[in-house]
């Protein structure tokens, strides 16, 4: 239960949040817990897959949405200046990004933003590069929009992903790549790219006139001592060809409100994207997204601090379990996000068999690594943003699956 313990200087209420409450989501509309039999062919699975949290969303956001309902009219809405100011302040304070209102475009989500940028700035059969493995919708948006998906397989070094710059440069040239879609922090591995890695990538793209989309939706979910760097902040010239995607949705567990931002510092790129958005009504958004995002960035900093402390505890628990109970299993310790990427090749199963094994034997729903690209074969992804009792149960089920 939430408990008020003190007042902040600016008059906002500081709350001591509990991340131990198990909220029953089985009869909700939530994708993660709903219709498990239809999704996985097994009703008894414990869902630890899709990337939303099993923690309550911050109370200030819930209160602000109730305030919208109290007006009793759910009419059309426009983004207020206070929302723009909240976004500008958050990005400057947390990510050293200098933004102005005329560089911010709103969209219903990061994935729709990728789609609209692809449509606005590239042509059919153009080559678009991504890493492998990487967040599944990257390749989906490329292929559904009839562009060529060029993958650069990530290298493995000390159980962490590493970019293969030689491979990237070779393919940029040979395939005449027009756009690179970057995931930072990386999903599914949780890698927080270093400044030097980002500089090297950006310089290659600059050299060969390749636009970059930098998906930074997990930017606020970083574990100490790692530090997130927003690509566009590394050099003023990068503003000419880097488009940054951001949202409050992952950070504050409000994915269902459907609001994201495209930061386009280059006025020409801004205009091209904006005109395309207008042509397909892409920027006509809902009131709840505007309100929830502004509240997140202005009132929910204390919640985020407490969340990160709990995620650190959960990650320590998961790593200790694998180290002591499943020492034969290699894994990546994430530097950011709440996603845990582990190697299941010791089971000797095909990727399809692997997914079915965890579902029907372990009774746990995870994300199949191969869904993130060929480089994810034999891996599974675990979401550890949940109360400890669910994490403990999920780990027991994973261990049982390995034992069988």
Automatic annotation (TrEMBL):
Protein name (Swiss-Prot/TrEMBL): cysteine-S-conjugate beta-lyase
PANTHER family recorded: PROTEIN MALY
Family classification: Belongs to the class-II pyridoxal-phosphate-dependent aminotransferase family. MalY/PatB cystathionine beta-lyase subfamily.
Keyword terms: Lyase, Pyridoxal phosphate
Domain Aminotransferase class I/classII large: 81-398
Top-rank lineage group of the source organism: Bacteria
GO MF terms, alphabetically ordered: cysteine-S-conjugate beta-lyase activity; pyridoxal phosphate binding
InterPro entries in the cross-refs: Aminotransferase_I/II_large, C-S_lyase_PatB-like, Class-II_PLP-Dep_Aminotrans, PyrdxlP-dep_Trfase, PyrdxlP-dep_Trfase_major, PyrdxlP-dep_Trfase_small
């Amino acid at each position: 239960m939430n408990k008020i313990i003190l007042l902040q200087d600016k008059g906002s209420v500081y709350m001591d949040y509990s991340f131990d409450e198990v909220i029953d989501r089985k009869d909700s509309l939530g994708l993660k817990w709903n219709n498990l039999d239809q999704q996985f062919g097994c009703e008894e699975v414990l869902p630890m897959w899709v990337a939303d949290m099993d923690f309550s969303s911050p109370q200030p956001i819930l209160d602000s949405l109730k305030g919208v309902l109290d007006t009793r009219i759910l009419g059309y809405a426009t983004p207020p200046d206070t929302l723009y100011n909240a976004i500008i302040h958050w990005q400057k304070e947390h990510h050293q990004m200098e933004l102005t209102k005329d560089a911010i475009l709103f969209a219903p989500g990061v994935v729709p933003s990728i789609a609209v940028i692809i449509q606005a700035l590239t042509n059919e059969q153009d080559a678009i590069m991504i890493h492998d493995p990487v967040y599944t919708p990257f390749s989906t948006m490329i292929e559904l929009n009839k562009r060529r998906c060029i993958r650069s397989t990530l290298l493995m070094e000390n159980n962490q992903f590493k970019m293969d710059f030689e491979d990237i440069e070779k393919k940029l040239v040979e395939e005449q790549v027009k756009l690179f879609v970057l995931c930072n922090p990386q999903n599914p591995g949780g890698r927080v790219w270093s400044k030097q890695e980002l500089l090297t990538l950006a310089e290659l793209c600059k050299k060969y006139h390749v636009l970059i989309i930098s998906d930074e939706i997990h930017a606020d979910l970083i574990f100490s001592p790692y530090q997130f760097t927003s690509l566009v902040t590394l050099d003023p010239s990068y503003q000419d060809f880097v488009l940054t995607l951001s949202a409050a949705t992952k950070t504050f567990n409000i994915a269902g409100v459907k609001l994201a931002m495209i930061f386009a510092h280059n006025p020409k790129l801004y205009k091209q994207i904006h005109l395309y958005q207008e042509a397909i009504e892409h920027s006509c958004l809902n009131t709840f997204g505007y309100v929830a995002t502004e509240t997140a960035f202005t009132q929910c900093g204390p919640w985020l601090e407490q969340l990160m402390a709990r995620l650190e505890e959960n990650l320590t628990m998961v790593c200790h379990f694998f180290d002591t109970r499943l020492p034969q299993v290699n894994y990546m310790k994430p530097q950011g996000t709440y996603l845990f990427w582990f190697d299941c090749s010791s089971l000797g199963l095909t990727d399809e068999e692997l997914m079915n094994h965890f579902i029907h034997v372990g009774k746990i729903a995870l994300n199949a690594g191969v869904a993130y690209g060929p480089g994810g074969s034999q891996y599974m992804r675990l979401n550890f943003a949940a109360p400890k009792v669910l994490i403990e149960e999920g780990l027991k089920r994973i261990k049982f699956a390995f034992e069988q």
